[in-house]
Predict the structure.
Amino acid sequence: MMATGLRHEHWYLGAIYFFLHFQYNGWFFFACAGLLYSSNDGRSSAIRYVFYLMAFACIPAYFLSILWAKLPVGAYGAAFLAAIAQLTAWAILLSQIWRKRISLLAHMTKTVRVLLLFAAAAACIKFILQAGSLHPGLAKLAFGFRPIVIGYLHLVLLGMLTIFIIAFLKHSRLVSPGGLRTQGIVVLVSGIVLQEALLLVQGMLAIGYHSVPYINEALFASALMMLAGISLLNIGMKQAHPPVFS
């Protein structure tokens, strides 16, 4: 806080959440949306409405990240509209997926289908939690306990975005099947799920001011699993596509 010159705690936290929000709800999310939409063959005009709703909600959704501050009525109303717009857009997208109107989901392998289910489940939880944070009691719980905040960020950045990108790479044949590549993906996703489960348990018990024995060691082990998964994936990629030196 001293380095940035922000002496007020709310301004300091607001600046951090500003960066995080426009990172994962901004260019990270829309980059993944671009990958998804680039494969769409244009049969459904509803896909455009999904983009418009998400783009409309992007800026006012920032207020959902700072509900702990004393927001004016207008800002709270904007946060409410953003939450409704995001839920509506997500519902439309799921309906398009269910009707098989997105080409990315055609001729999927079992691995890609499972990965997308993980990513979709994480996205569902994300949008529901954002809408639920409009309730003052839930907002106090969500922003008052650090494990819950970290668990939410991991849910979005690892559970939703990272797993979706891996699924897209698998579906696009940029990550070929078999060998260490598949093993690396399994270990990586297992580490992500384990860490999210540990953070969930830690957060729920923290609400009652209870601690989890050896939670730091368990979180470190899950981080090592993710590191091992990424390493296996990279090694497998190099074995499948060895570098060519001139």
Summary: The longest helix spans residues 9-38. The radius of gyration is 20 Å.
